[in-house]
Specification:
By secondary structure, this protein is mainly α. It folds into two domains: 144 residues, no CATH class; 71 residues, no CATH class. Helices cover 61% and strands 4% of the residues. α2 runs antiparallel to α4, α4 crosses α7 and α7 runs antiparallel to α8.
């Protein structure tokens, strides 16, 4: 496990995403003899440990790792922040094991590559000190529990309050986002017993500070962002 953690760290900071992507396109029949594995630490180690290509779960881990590394190296990241973080890891092996170990466990667990994408953006925000480690852990748990199909509704709630009494088809999605702590309640008027009887309590949902910060990190618009709005 320690070797795998170290190789993930090296693959991220050496920007090996393009090589991993090429490797994934080779196919399971030729990958064992391909020279690419010698150039990508995480690929070589995974192949040796888990026999990539023979097990769908191991292949999924590699694909999620590629998505994570690629997104981490997309765009500009403050070099001073990266160097500072790398120095911290060199001085504290336990920090490296704890933090990259958590990332690997999550990447291995995710089915949807979009979650690997969001996790990478959160980790990038952590490295750049926009969020602390406790926040990263909280947000990464939210990503783990999040339904991908609820993301568009989350964007909608971020841009405007949602009245679930007027949009009953989204009630179950609203409640899921509420259970994750990403949205809150907006009291619009004094309640009456009639409101209670008709189920109008807490009908307006709006983004809360936790959800606002989460959205600001994972919904950054760019050409390759899977969350980019159409048009």
């Amino acid at each position: 496990m320690n070797e795998l953690i170290n190789d993930l760290k090296n693959s991220i900071f050496n920007n090996s995403s393009d090589l991993i992507a090429d490797y994934l396109e080779i196919g399971v029949d030729t990958q064992i003899t391909n020279e690419i594995i010698k150039e990508v630490p995480i690929v070589k180690t995974l192949l040796a440990m888990f026999k990539i290509g023979k097990n769908i779960y191991d292949w999924n881990l590699l694909k999620n790792t590629e998505e994570f590394v690629q997104e981490f190296n997309r765009g500009e990241v403050d070099k001073e922040k990266i160097d500072k973080y790398k120095n911290e890891l060199e001085k504290n092996s336990q920090k490296c094991e704890k933090e990259f170990g958590r990332v690997l466990l999550l990447l291995n667990k995710f089915i949807d590559k979009e979650k690997a994408f969001m996790l990478s953006r959160l980790f990038k925000a952590y490295v750049e000190e926009k969020i602390n480690w406790k926040e990263f852990c909280e947000y990464s748990e939210i990503v783990d529990r999040l339904f991908i199909n609820d993301l568009e509704l989350l964007k909608k709630i971020k841009n405007q309050d949602v009245d679930i009494m007027k949009s009953r088809e989204d009630v179950f999605r609203v409640e899921r986002l509420y259970s994750l702590g990403l949205i809150g309640i907006c009291w619009t008027k004094e309640l009456t017993w009639q409101d209670v009887g008709e189920g109008h309590i807490n009908s307006i949902r709006t983004i809360n500070p936790l959800g606002e910060k989460f959205c600001d990190i994972v919904f950054i618009e760019d050409k390759k962002c899977f969350l980019k709005e159409e048009g």
